Amino acid sequence: AQTVTQSQPEMSVQEAETVTLSCTYDTSESDYYLFWYKQPPSRQMILVIRQEAYKQQNATENRFSVNFQKAAKSFSLKISDSQLGDAAMYFCAYRALNYGGSQGNLIFGKGTKLSVKP
Amino acid sequence: DTAVSQTPKYLVTQMGNDKSIKCEQNLGHDTMYWYKQDSKKFLKIMFSYNNKELIINETVPNRFSPKSPDKAHLNLHINSLELGDSAVYFCASSQNLRQTQYFGPGTRLLVL
Which of B61, B60, B67 lies closest to B80 in space, CA to CA? Predict the structure, then answer.
């Protein structure tokens, strides 16, 4: 079964600095997607960034970028120029595309709570 | 013009009651999902519907039943509520099984 591990329950960063959130996953599949979702105190789940496993190029979205290491099954999120509004729970998620009944199913890590200090 | 909406946002009820949570998406998506987020913030898939057919059914109690009257709606019915059902329930939708899922605002259920 696929699993997603976020080893940092909490992280803290100074405003305007850079922080990296870690995520590792376990799968025997070759075709899958990886995601980072943000959940602020409002509890809304917001998509931050998405990475297709077949793409070697790391995804970027403005201040957010990932370091995708397929062989190592690692998918870290880098937030540059951190802002107060970045404070939230961040969830790493895996999505199988060719795995029987779990096809399309999002499997989440336990989350990392990010605090941003002014 | 909310993409994925849920009602109610908060639901407080007594043990043993039956309740429903409604979900609607106006994105024209073919697939809808229900997730449960427990008190430790852990998110887990409960159900998904693709073109009105159940395609994933994780090991949830049969007290929980998804009902989809049409492609834009996936409601969650819960019978005989238990204390352990207290959680935040999220609805989500995607164009198909390969595309990104977009989440509703969540429904916080508290069973007393």
Answer: B61
